Amino acid sequence: MLSEQTTTKEEITGWLRGLQDRICAALEDTDGKARFKEDLWERPGGGGGRTRIIGQGNILEKGGVGFSAVYGETPEKILHALKLDQAHFYATGVSIVLHPVNPMVPIIHMNVRYFEMSNGVSWFGGGIDLTPHYVDEEDARYFHTRLKEVCDRHNAGYHPEFKKWADDYFYISHRKETRGIGGIFFDRLSATEAFTKTDRFRFVQSVGDLFAPLYTYFMRKNAQLPYNDRQKEWQMVRRGRYVEFNLVYDKGTKFGLDTDGRAESILMSLPPQAQWHYNYQVTPGSQEEKTQQLLKKGINWV
Amino acid sequence: MLSEQTTTKEEITGWLRGLQDRICAALEDTDGKARFKEDLWERPGGGGGRTRIIGQGNILEKGGVGFSAVYGETPEKILHALKLDQAHFYATGVSIVLHPVNPMVPIIHMNVRYFEMSNGVSWFGGGIDLTPHYVDEEDARYFHTRLKEVCDRHNAGYHPEFKKWADDYFYISHRKETRGIGGIFFDRLSATEAFTKTDRFRFVQSVGDLFAPLYTYFMRKNAQLPYNDRQKEWQMVRRGRYVEFNLVYDKGTKFGLDTDGRAESILMSLPPQAQWHYNYQVTPGSQEEKTQQLLKKGINWV
Fold this sequence. Notes:
Strand order of the largest sheet of chain A: 1-2-3-4-5-6-9
Order of helices and strands of chain A: HEEEHEEEHHEEEHHHHEH
CATH architecture of chain A: 3-Layer(aba) Sandwich
Structural class of chain A: alpha+beta
CATH superfamily of chain A: Coproporphyrinogen III oxidase, aerobic
Distance between the termini of chain A: 35 Å
Mean pLDDT of chain A: 95
Radius of gyration of chain A: 19 Å
Oligomer: homodimer
CATH class of chain A: Alpha Beta
Shape of chain A: globular
Largest sheet of chain A: 7 strands, antiparallel
Strand content of chain A: 25-35%
Number of helices of chain A: 9
């Protein structure tokens, strides 16, 4: 059976590298001005990456599309979590965060990754989530509908589970608000009786392939919308919350910083600027207030 | 003997409340424009605080001087760390972070605090550290000299220990740089054979009393210095590092957020704005490069 063919790490790595290329090309094409700059880096313990940074574009103010494939001795923290004494690991993935100029264009994040260890354990993880500075309900429905379609093509159980996972994961506890409107998040998708490793890979490929058409849709649709100083200030406040989430809660960021990862590549997710106002209050009845009220878990957008 | 009198939590609390008043008055007086706004808050589990925020001043762009006195059942995290099953706690302190307008004026942080538990354990903690956007070596010497004088008045062993503690504590591992030029940091100063509780309190009082004359000296001395756009941008980058330290490493911030503390009071330490540039590089031979080279542990400034 086709689905029982073994998907190798080489195949996955090659596909992810190509995904980075395709996404960068689509983003440059849609932005029309900005071009990615590439930094190649090597990891002292093994492997390396291709960090690609974009900025000062017509639509994209700052962002990155990173690819990495690293390997070596498994860090203590992971061994401990997996209750293992010793093992080698291989990890590869593509990570994206884009901060647009216009507050009417949402911030987006995607990550797709593969991890395997010398003891035979392997899994996929990833997700896409959207952080609008202003929640437009039609855009939110569109976003979640597209994600649901991709999930449903693979398994009817994926979307309910991974949508909830995103709601729970992208949560800023100390603010009692979600980072944005969520999306999907999944981790440790291994082969099971119900899913082969190839099935899991096909799903991750569908998620990765969705990114460029999905985000360029919002770029094209919203980048020409007018905005004023108050809306720009609100964008800065929301970017501040994005910083808070990434530095306080994001597991990938924490793990990367804890294990002496390449700081510039890990922190490419941070916005070009952010602001903090003590006890910022939204005006009753404003679009900012409406957005704040929609930053909560469990909204069924579809 | 005088030093064996018991210092009560009421006495400590009253003194700290007065310290907040005196520091706020001195800062307003030196700024000449900005006035503190006060937020009184109550902690659901017991106690509360007086958060005072200043901003848009002649010299101070954003900052806070907070006082709190909270009590109740000891959070699980502390009980676990102290290997205790159950206890009540009382904690009071003054915390300050000030972000100036002019990049030639340093950011400053001070915290003095007292903690006791129903099982009889009690201690003081605190410190002052300076984060210049541009390290002026004369200012740095002045700062450390004043701290050393205060320490030496109480015990010759304090300054070497607490200076090193600050170097180690205010360290941004993932950047391999210190937050600023350090200062002093101390924690869990309990009564011992060598120091009574009153001795410890007198030391903490000296540290607290040093704050206003020390920082208003820098305000007066540097607030009129000229600066250009590049220097303002560098200030934004340094503020970004300040955010990284506070959200990733600062134990007080983490503990406060973890235990559902008042987010606005905890995060009053964040700057009004910050910037992140991918892989920011300083110009060789510049003042920015000189500063970066001085952001390391173990410099003997005195």
